[in-house]
Amino acid sequence: MTKTKLELTWIGKDKRPRLEPRILLEDSKKSYHATNKFSENDIFDNKVIKGDNLLALKALEREYTGKIKCVFIDPPYNTGSAFSYYDDGLEHSIWLGLMRDRLEILRNLLTDDGSLWITIDDNEAHYLKVLGDEVFGRSNFVANIVWQKFHSVKTNSKYGISQAHDHILVFKKSDAMSDFNLLSMDEDALKVYKNPDNDSRGRWRTAPLTVSLLGGARGAAYAKTGISTGIYEIISPTGKVHLPSKGRCWISKNGFEELLADNRIWWGKDGNAVPMKKVFLNESGGKKIASTFWDHHEAGSNKTANEEQKILNIAKESFPTPKPEKLMERILSLATNKGDLVLDSFAGSGTTGAVAHKMGRRWIMVELGEHCHTYIIPRLKKVIDGEDKGGVTESIGWQGGGGFRYYKLAPSLMKKDQWDNWVINPEYNQEMLVEAMCKLEGYTYMPSETEYWNHGKGSETDFIYVTTQTLTDQQLQAISEEVGEGRTLLIIASAWRSNNIDRFTNLTLKKIPNSIIKACEWGHDDYSLNVQNLPMSEPDIEDKPKAKKVKNTQEQSQVTGDLFGDQT
Fold it and tell me: For the region Disordered, what residue ranges are annotated (predicted)?
């Protein structure tokens, strides 16, 4: 029987933006660095990027592909709420399309052992899980963590059920990622360790001696033979016989006998209990494995985040949906180590950068809203100056230091003139034009100090030269000779005069702007989660029956594997 692959289908899924790879322009007046060096590990090359986050991700792609260890995003939840910072009420299909476009670039940016963490609520969580499976692969889904964002019950809740949690969907880039880091034990975790038998090795807790009988190679072998070496009798000191429970099997006999000989088996106070392994506190290093439920004591809550905002005392109007610093500290503790690079392309209130900075991680944040200036930058300045006394500052022992650079997206490289013709944007100077063309053609911008024609490289032997001049035959001859054998050069020029350019076998020539007009969408500055800014969004026509948006939904669902039902 042929297996049918089901895919998440939505209106406009086949419509993808042709993104312009913009350059980033630093505004040194908004960049900020500590006046004093606090330690040798101070980090200064962090980035705050102001602008549309999809264009910003595209701008980062060339330099940062395969370099981001952890991506955390807290996208608008598409709930229909009227937020002052976001238009968070997009039609379902458009929201999915926008998220797909972002996830694909984010996956490219991750290191092979990197991970993506997304906070979302019930409104889109399950669709986003399937979308993430498509982009990352189902086998790369790690976990759905339930975070307790509210710890009080709302009496006016819809249907009489008070929503208390958000989801945190976790995906890995590939199988190159090993286990996440362990978490430090809190007081509640330490209470589990006791010493009822006065073992000289100190306090311990119990752990099962059984594993799944049906999983992996063990399960495959059992399915074929109906026999397992893990199914055997264990006899307690009192003579009671124990067998593993249904669907489980013991660890190997040799493993059990080694534990028994080392007094690492606990039979209960009366010696009759199911045998358990003793796990000693002094061997755990004070660390524990994370679970998929994070309560507000462990990871903070919305109330915690609001209290942190009050301590910061930055703006009269508080940010509506901040994340607590304890939540971000927990994620970064699991997914990163000091010096790793963290990205948040929905920066919001700036919690990711603030906590990453305190924890000694490098970071990049992207934010479109004006609160990038009114909230995020003032918050980061307080962190750098050691004036942020809230959040995880005390528990980490943060005192200040480091800095960040502020960037904005450059305007579109092409714009239409008064006669409706595409021309190079006059806001671009020569340096900006060269960098933009390097990015557009897939070259690394690295102007040579000795070779005037060498503006960047695509490989060790392939280079690029960008000029607005009209090159003569003599100039092309001279450049070709300087490039020499074994190297190639792409020349982007306004024009050239030569009777036989084919003789320059190491040169490839392109004219600007003609050669790039169809390369991408020029002059499109806003791909934000705002329905009126989207090229795929078409206004409703009053005399067009809305039912025609999705024709025969049941039939479509059967044919395409549409998981949306009658959603339009």
Answer: 534-568
From CA 123, how far away is CA 93, in angstroms rounded? 13
Tokens, residue 207:
């752990």
Name the domain count of the chain: 3
- CB-based contact 324:312 (threshold 8 Å): no
pLDDT band per the 50, 70, 90 thresholds, residue 551? very low
Q: Are 218 and 362 members of one domain?
A: no
CATH number, domain with residue 442: 3.40.1350
Between CA 148 and CA 327 the distance in angstroms is 10
Domain check: are 296 and 401 in the same one?
A: yes
Indicate whether 368 and 430 sit together in one domain.
no
Please give the C-alpha separations between residue 415 and each of 158, 412, 483, 531, in angstroms, as whole numbers. Answer: 50, 7, 33, 24
413-463 pLDDT per residue, tens = 999 999 999 999 999 999 999 999 999 999 999 999 999 999 999 999 999
Question: Which DSSP string corresponds to 296-326?
Answer: HHHH--HHHHHHHHHHH---SSPPSS---HH
Q: How many secondary structure helices (H) and strands (E) does the chain include? A: 17, 31
Three-state SS across 430-441? HHHHHHHHHHHH
121-133 pLDDT, tens digit per residue, is: 998 899 999 999 9
Q: How confident is the model at residue 40 (pLDDT cuts 50, 70, 90)?
A: confident
pLDDT reported for residue 90: 56
Question: What whole-number distance in Å separates Cα of residue 263 and Cα of residue 277?
Answer: 9
Task: Find all residues with CB under 8 Å of 341, minimum gap 6, and list them.
Answer: 64, 67, 68, 69, 70, 361, 362, 363, 364
pLDDT value at position 276? 97
Query: What integer is the mean pLDDT of 110-115?
Result: 98
DSSP string, 370-393: THIIIIIHHHHHHHHHT---STTH
CB 296 within 8 A of CB 305: no
CB 506 within 8 A of CB 484: yes
Parallel, antiparallel, or unpaired: how do β-strands 341-344 and 68-73 relate? parallel
- Closest alpha carbon to 299 in 121, 120, 166: 166
The residue out of 223, 251, 282 marking a domain boundary is 282
250 located within any domain: yes
CA neighbor of 209 nearest in space, from 246, 251, 257: 251
Residues 30, 26: Cα–Cα separation, whole Å: 9
Q: Is the per-residue pLDDT at 358 higher than 50?
A: yes
Which residue shows structure tokens 């790369």? 140
529 — pLDDT class (breaks 50, 70, 90): low
- Which structural domain, as residue segments, surrounds residue 404? 29-182+290-409
Q: Per the omega criterion (within 30 degrees of 0), is the bond before 513 cis?
A: yes
Distance, CA of 492 to CA of 508 (rounded, Å)? 9
Instruction: Give the whole-number percent of the chain exceeding pLDDT 90.
Output: 72
**For residue 139, what is the enclosing H or E element?**
none
